[in-house]
Amino acid sequence: MSTQQLQNLLVAYTATATGKDALNLGAALARTTGAHLHIVTVIPEDNAYAGVYPSDRGHVPIIRKQLRGWLQDAQTSLPDDISSSIHTVSDSSDASGLLAAAEQLDCSAIILGGRGGGLLKRFRLGSTANTLLHSSPVPVVLAPAGYDNQQALTRVTTMFGQRPGAQAVINSSLMIAQKYDLPLRLVSLVFLQRAAESFAADTDETSTQVLIDQVKKFGNTQLAAQAADMVEADRASTIVATGKTVEDAVDQLSWLDEELIILGSSRLASPSHIFLGSTASRMLRSLSAPMMIIPASST
Question: Domain check: are 277 and 161 in the same one?
């Protein structure tokens, strides 16, 4: 299923604040796209060689019943206008269990909550998120800690740098914005000192043309034309965010409460898979809005 066809979304759920963050983001995305939510919990596989299980595993049915109850509570807490179903999957790894469930349920994205313990409205990734962000064949959507919005999204922001390989994220962002009639903000990140100084005196009009040229260079001519058309129709805005560091550039940006950030994968990613690069990893320290990581292009 293509990235822009968000028809089935997997919510990785646990009965914790992290799970609630993911569920809230799932509700927001479902209201935006009309997608069905598959709420999934991974049950540790009943494996005789797994150290977490004693030789007497009579407690397993009790655990399954409790997890099922938590899933039912999560589903009940969703607004009535959201279509959903609940599932459990057994696997020795949360990440592999979620990937298997996403494939079986034909889900076009996996939604995760950020790990607790980080700063409010910031990201702190656990082992499951880290694994998925370096292997998943479908987009991974991250909710920041404390995410409490369930309303439909009101803007998409796509962020890309000055290296080749941005075509997948630019294309996905344009298609999502057009399909779901969302305003799009195109942000080009420039970190070099000399580049920052050269852009500092640019007017908004000049910056728009600079960014459209970058879309053409790091995407292609067709994507640049689409972006220019959306800007002309007041359905897209453009920003060249500059700074000495990634953090400096990102800190210039403001965020709406109902916003989704879309980022691409590193050049190290395998075709059609995610690999969270070092730049995106550093962005996590400054971003306060949900973030979707798009797999690398298959071509």
Answer: yes
